[in-house]
Design a protein that fits this description.
heterodimer, A: 316 residues, alpha/beta, Rossmann fold, Alpha-Beta Plaits, 6-stranded mixed beta sheet, B: 279 residues, mainly alpha, binds adenosine-5'-diphosphate, binds magnesium ion
Chain lengths: 316, 279
């Protein structure tokens, strides 16, 4: 449904988006992850046809966003960053304007407005002027605008920005539900959001794609995926660490907590040896007469991966 | 008395209604839905904005004030409106038209709604024309509301109402030229104040470049002067001679073509400015 090929955008000398390619099919929700300034919004602006690309192309269905602008745009619903709104309109008028512009037939407009208002929980403010709304309501009003014509493609730039935790939860659920019948791209820098609603995620940094996969696959790439956290007690606790470091399965041992009679360490496996790691640790501990209090295989965490691959930005 | 009222109706109410009817028919049937939708939104927005009302009131106070106090309409005893009224109109609109039009595109950029509008399935000219027509409605309302002065001059004497009507048409077209300039300039900035000031400057230049001392000076320059073609072009763009011909009741085809192409040129410039801003 959405096909992005070798997309680039330069602002003067600055390369904001550097040769990005991906596709999103109907029924997929693609999470766009990356630190601030990574190029998420710029990419979305090119996908929606707002910014002309410096290189590469985007098609929506079979319509090219540059050559067949109007056909492509009519398939898209778009929530821009910061949810811009006309401040001198009421919520109702604004949604009517959006519906008319989007070509919803006049007879279906009232029903479309009611549905969007219900979906985005706007009943309480529907006759209120936009400039008196709180940030959460403003955001949801703009979200309502993006779904009013029931588009096949939804592009949402930070859809949960400025919402309280309950509203965030609702919106994530909404994205997930809508994703069953649409092709959706949404950007965020909140990692739990990706796990909550995406079927696939792309991490971008400084304009480049640096990871692409299902949330599961990405988690497995995290450094601590498959690491074992082990706590032991006994008189010879100091010998645990050197003992573990001798094992062929072990890559590296990291101390988490250490005392005279109790230590906790995190053990990272060598590539491909993750499966045998727990058994080897267990055996080593028993050989040294240590009592295992806890032994846990860690799941990779997205935020670990995120920090790991984008961290150079902060150091630089 | 009844005769006079019928006279006025024939001369003004009917042409005004015809203009309004053409306008509405154009919007309802000839122009695409997108233009209509943008137009409706903009008109509503003018309706709730204090700036539009302030502009209308200031225009009415100044235009009537100058006509009666400085134009000396009552003392002169001449039953005509060019000298006391219409000749000043282009000067007022040098400020009033930019004040009406300054928000057209700059507000769109300040609010960020430009990104919404430009990702909707419409061609840029739909939005440009819709906005321009909405601003022209405000100017049209100003001219309709200055109608009492026509009654006064008809009460005082026996003016040629055809010439007065031509004066209104000339004023309207001149104001639309200024609005088109303002539309293009407001597309270049997100600040309404900057749009206002720059537009006033450009409108003033466009007006002055048609002023006889300047056009004469350029005409008297030797043709081998390297700047002559450029200066000649600038004076050709001057609105003033066309306004004067028209306002004195001489309806020339060339003047109409001039006004319409002037407006079309600056609406086209608006499209270029919007495109340049997006890249
Ligand atoms: N109109 C613009 N002109 C110049 N630079 C820009 C413009 N828009 C974005 N950038 C730059 O491009 C980079 C990517 O920005 P953006 O796409 O907004 O990132 P994100 O949405 O991931 O935070 C940033 O460094 C930003 O400063
Ligand atoms: Mg962004």
């Amino acid at each position: 449904m959405i096909e992005v090929r070798n997309l680039s955008k330069h602002f003067g000398d600055k390369v904001a988006v550097d040769n990005i390619s991906f596709t999103v099919k109907k029924g997929e929700v693609l999470g766009f992850l990356g630190p601030n300034g990574a190029g998420k919004s710029t990419t979305m602006r090119m996908v929606t046809g707002y910014l002309p690309p410096t290189g590469g192309s985007v098609s929506i269905g079979d319509a090219d966003v540059v050559d067949d602008e109007i056909a492509a745009k009519s398939k898209i619903g778009y929530l821009p960053e910061n949810a811009p709104l006309y401040s001198d309109m009421t919520v109702d008028d604004f949604l009517r304007f959006a519906a008319e512009m989007r070509g919803v037939p006049a007879s279906k407009i009232p029903a479309a407005i009611d549905k969007a208002i219900e979906t985005c929980f706007l009943q309480r403010v529907r006759h209120q002027s936009v400039d008196t709304l709180s940030k959460g309501y403003r955001h949801r009003t703009c979200l309502a605008q993006s779904i009013i014509h029931d588009p096949e493609v939804l592009i949402l730039d930070e859809p949960t920005d400025g919402l309280d935790p309950n509203q965030k939860h609702e919106v994530r659920g909404l994205i997930k539900r809508m994703g069953e019948t649409k092709a959706i791209i949404f950007s965020t820098h909140i990692l739990e959001e990706v796990e909550a609603s995406c079927t696939r995620a792309i991490i971008i940094d400084r304009g480049k794609v640096i990871a692409d996969g299902t949330p599961e696959q990405l988690k497995n790439k995290a450094e601590n995926a498959g690491a074992v956290l082990v706590s032991v007690t006994g008189s010879a606790v100091a010998s645990l660490r050197p003992e573990l470091e001798k094992l062929s399965e072990v890559n590296r041992v990291e101390s988490v907590e250490s005392g005279d009679h109790a230590v906790t360490v995190r053990v990272f496996p060598n590539k491909g040896k993750g499966g045998a790691l727990s058994a080897a640790i267990f055996k080593a501990a028993v050989d040294k007469n240590l009592t295992i209090q806890e032994l846990k295989v860690e799941e990779g965490r997205l935020d670990e991966l995120f920090r790991q691959i984008t961290r150079s930005d902060i150091e630089a | 008395m009844v005769d006079a009222i019928i006279q006025l109706l024939l001369h003004f109410a009917i042409p005004a209604l015809v203009v309004a009817a053409i306008f509405i028919a154009l919007l309802m049937f000839a122009l695409p839905r997108e233009v209509r939708t943008v137009f409706k939104r903009e008109v509503k927005s003018y309706f709730v904005s204090p700036i539009a009302y302030v502009c209308v009131v200031i225009f009415l106070v100044i235009s009537n004030g100058i006509t009666f106090w400085f134009g000396g309409m009552l003392e002169s005893g001449e039953a005509e409106l060019y000298r006391p009224f219409f000749q000043y109109m282009p000067w007022y609109f040098i400020v009033i038209a930019p004040a009406v039009g300054m928000r057209l595109w700059s507000e769109e950029q300040r609010l960020g709604t430009m990104e919404l509008l430009m990702t909707m399935p419409l061609a840029p000219w739909h939005a440009i024309v819709g906005k321009f027509l909405a601003a022209s409605v405000v100017v049209f309302a100003m001219l309709v509301l200055s109608f009492p002065i026509v009654m006064v001059v008809n009460y005082l004497g026996d003016p040629d109402n055809g010439v007065i009507l031509a004066g209104f048409v000339a004023t309207f077209l001149t104001a639309l030229c200024y609005l088109a300039i303002t539309s293009a300039i407001s597309a270049l900035t997100r600040s309404q104040i900057v749009a206002l000031l720059v537009s006033i400057g450009v409108c003033l230049a466009v007006w002055l470049s048609g002023l006889p001392p300047i056009t004469d000076a350029v005409d008297n320059l030797p043709r081998w002067n390297p700047f002559w073609p450029l200066l000649k072009l600038v004076t050709t763009l001057g609105v003033l001679p066309h306004f004067n011909e028209f306002a004195k009741g001489v309806l020339g085809f060339r003047d109409i073509v001039f006004f319409l192409s002037f407006i079309a040129f600056f609406l086209f410039a608006t499209a270029i400015a919007i495109r340049a801003k997006r890249a």
